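Milestone 3.1: sequence recovery, worked example.
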């Protein structure tokens, strides 16, 4: 059965069919490059820059323009809607990039928001200066996006009230979660690695983590609890 394409994503997805590679490979290259571009602007790493440059070598100069167009289209999709959405997760599924064999079945956004409403209690939100929310198998970060949207709907500034920690063993999911948390100005870190093995192959901090001085906030709370 053919997958129905969300009209909002048609222009973005049409760009994925322009290159010499298949749409899934172009999408994966795009999210890796875009994630590294965001991260290296705030926390530079030559190792990550080398990954970025290695991907660019696959494409001709004229073909690299596709990635600029993809970046522009993606940012516009986030800006055009007041609600927080799992944009990349939906596109990932619509192009068939998710693997059921690897257990990559993403939670729908409305379920993520419902789960947040049952976990985040009003008393906890009021009691704590900020709350830490972790997702050990984050996929595209939808559960954390759902938490941010829940706070947003309740007139709570999630940028100051919520700190997140996302982790996934899959590099593409790691990059998608990082991009979305970054574009929605959600403070936190995204970890690449197997949670059960306490593995940390890479750690990317979102721009809001630096902008909001969250290192100092964490240290201040730690000192108060000592």
């Amino acid at each position: 059965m053919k997958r129905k394409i969300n009209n909002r994503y048609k222009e973005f997805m049409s760009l994925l069919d322009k290159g010499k590679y298949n749409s899934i490979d172009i999408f994966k290259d795009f999210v890796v490059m875009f994630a590294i571009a965001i991260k290296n602007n705030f926390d530079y790493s030559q190792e990550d820059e080398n990954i970025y440059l290695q991907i660019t070598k696959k494409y001709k100069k004229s073909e690299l323009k596709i990635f600029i167009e993809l970046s522009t289209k993606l940012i516009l999709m986030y800006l055009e809607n007041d609600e927080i959405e799992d944009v990349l997760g939906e596109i990932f599924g619509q192009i068939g990039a998710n693997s059921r064999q690897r257990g990559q079945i993403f939670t729908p956004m409305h379920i993520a928001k419902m789960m947040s409403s049952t976990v985040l209690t009003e008393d906890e939100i009021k009691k704590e200066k900020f709350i830490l929310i972790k997702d050990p198998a984050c996929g595209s970060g939808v559960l954390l996006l759902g938490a941010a949207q829940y706070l947003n709907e309740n007139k709570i500034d999630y940028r100051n009230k919520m700190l997140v920690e996302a982790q996934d063993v899959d590099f593409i999911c790691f990059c998608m979660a990082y991009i979305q948390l970054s574009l929605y100005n959600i403070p936190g870190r995204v970890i690449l690695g197997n949670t059960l093995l306490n593995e940390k192959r890479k750690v990317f901090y979102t721009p809001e983590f630096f902008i909001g001085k969250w290192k100092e906030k964490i240290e201040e709370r730690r000192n108060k609890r000592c």
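The longest strand covers residues 162-168. The chain has a mean pLDDT of 89.
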